[in-house]
Amino acid sequence: MFKLAFICFVAPLFLLFTNTSSSHNTSSSTNCPTYHCKNGPNISYPFWLSQGSPPDQYCGYPEFGLICSDHGDPIFSPPPGYYYYVKNVDYGKHSLNLVDFDTANQTCPRALHKVPLGNLPLSQSSLNLNLGFYYNCTSYPSGVPSIKCLSFGVKESFVFVMGNETKGFDWLENCEANVMVTVMKDQITSDNGLMHQFAGAISEGFVLEWRTSSNCVECEASNGLCGYSNTRKEVLCFCNDGTTRSNKCDGGSSTGLSRLIIDPSCQGLFSSWRNWGTADMHPTLHF
């Protein structure tokens, strides 16, 4: 009887102690580190480096995982198949400067697509300007300068600041392709200089601003840093007190705590303790 009572009393306390300790061993500094590729800016929350994160979980927005290229440059791939160099990140202004992988540092770039933001927590910056490219036009107004390095036989290609196309001509009807490309405003000084400036502007990239991910609103509102568990398929919140919780820090369940499973024989013993009339015989147990 004494042996059973000892086990039933000590086991819950042992489990509670060990689980509470383990929940405090995951600090935000450990789970939300700053990464760095060979080149480029530091990679910090809400971004994370996929090569350096634990396989089961990471700290950062699910959409903001970065990789390091073979040459040591940080690469952002918003949707799969689209790749951008991360040239700079301003964590104070929540903005990042991206350069299209396919057109970077080309003297005569042919942009293939616009920036595919989709449902990502990203938006265009007011620092940006949109250019419209019209490729392989079979007919075009006289006097409009073409992009000579993109000429293809009798077909010519053109670029305009969006909205400033030659009026009264159907560019979409007479050209094989039309692509909108985003650059920074300060890279284009005038429409007249566009023909000589667009290549350099594309190489300098554009600016996007991020907002709180919809999955991370509760976590950040509770002063936590948001992450995700690939194992449990749930949002994590890394808290200032060192715990890792589900969804948010205040009131969220700690992922380090386990449920205590009480053996039926112990349950019977606890019931007996409750029924004993002497107050001194009632141990204080917290579950």
Written description of the protein model:
With 287 residues, the chain is α+β, with helices and mostly antiparallel strands. It is built from six helices and 14 strands. The strands form three sheets. The protein has a seven-stranded mixed sheet, with helices on one face. The chain has a four-stranded antiparallel sheet with strand order 2-12-13-14, with no helix packed on it. A three-stranded antiparallel sheet has the order 9-8-10. The longest helix has 22 residues, at 2-23. It is elongated, with a radius of gyration of 30 Å. The two termini are 22 Å apart. Residues 155-242 form the Wall-associated receptor kinase C-terminal domain. Residues 1-23 form the signal peptide. It is found in: Membrane.
Give the secondary structure arrangement, pairings included:
Elements: H1 2-23, H2 28-31, E1 48-49, E2 57-59, E3 65-68, E4 74-76, E5 84-90, E6 95-100, E7 122-124, E8 128-137, E9 156-161, H3 171-174, E10 175-184, H4 194-204, E11 206-210, H5 217-221, E12 225-229, E13 234-238, E14 244-246, H6 264-275
Parallel strand pairs: 1-3
Antiparallel strand pairs: 2-12, 3-4, 4-5, 5-6, 6-11, 7-11, 8-9, 8-10, 12-13, 13-14
Please sum up the structure shown.
This protein is of the alpha+beta class.
Task: Considering the chains and any ligands shown, give keywords for the structure.
elongated; 6 helices; 287 residues; alpha+beta; single chain; seven-stranded mixed beta sheet; disordered C terminus; four-stranded antiparallel beta sheet; disordered N terminus
